[in-house]
C-alpha cells in the first residue's frame, strides 16, 4: 500500500479551506446569537415604553386633578384667605377701537 504524499501547496490550500469554513461557521453562530440578544433587548425596551406610557397617563390624570378649578378655588379661599373682589375694586378699562 502506497500513501500519497501531499506537497506544501496542497496542504496550505486545504488549511485555508478549513480556516474559511470555521471562520464562516463562527461568524454565523455569532450573528445568530447577536440577533437573539437584540430581539430580547427590543422586547425589553418595548415593555419599558408601555410602562412609561402608562405612567404618563397617570401623571396627566394627577395633573388634571391638581389643577381642577374647584380645588384651586378651595385652596385660595381656605389656605390663602382670598375672597371675591368687591364691586368697587373692579376697574374696567375703555377699549378704544380704531
Question: How would you portray this structure in words?
Answer:
With 98 residues, this protein is mostly helical. Helix content is 71%, strand content 0%. The chain has one domain. It has helices at 8-66, 69-79. The N and C termini lie far apart (120 Å). The mean pLDDT is 89.
Features:
98 residues, mainly alpha, 2 helices, 0% strand, rod-shaped
Brief description of this entry?
The protein has 98 residues and is mainly α. The protein has helices at 8-66, 69-79. It is rod-shaped and about 125 Å long.
Can you lay out the helices and strands and say which pair or pack?
Blueprint: H1 8-66, H2 69-79
Gyration radius (Cα, Å) is: 39 Å
What is the tally of helical segments?
2
- Give the terminus-to-terminus CA distance: 120 Å
Shape: rod-shaped
Q: Write down the overall mean pLDDT.
A: 89
How would you classify the helix and strand content by structural class?
mainly alpha
Oligomer: single chain
Sketch the major β-sheet. Answer: none
Beta content: under 5%
Number of domains: 1
Q: Please write the string of helix (H) and strand (E) elements.
A: HH
- Give the strand tally: 0
Helix content: over 70%
Give start-end ranges of low-pLDDT stretches.
Answer: none
Amino acid at each position: 500500500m502506497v500513501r500519497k504524499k501531499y506537497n506544501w501547496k496542497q496542504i496550505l490550500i486545504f488549511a485555508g479551506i478549513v480556516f474559511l469554513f470555521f471562520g464562516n461557521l463562527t461568524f454565523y453562530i455569532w450573528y445568530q446569537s447577536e440577533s437573539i440578544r437584540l430581539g430580547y433587548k427590543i422586547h425589553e425596551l418595548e415593555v419599558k415604553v408601555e410602562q412609561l406610557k402608562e405612567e404618563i397617563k397617570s401623571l396627566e390624570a394627577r395633573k388634571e386633578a391638581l389643577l381642577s378649578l374647584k380645588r384651586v378655588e378651595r385652596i385660595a379661599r381656605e389656605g390663602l384667605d382670598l375672597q371675591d373682589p368687591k364691586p368697587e375694586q373692579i376697574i374696567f378699562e375703555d377699549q378704544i377701537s380704531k
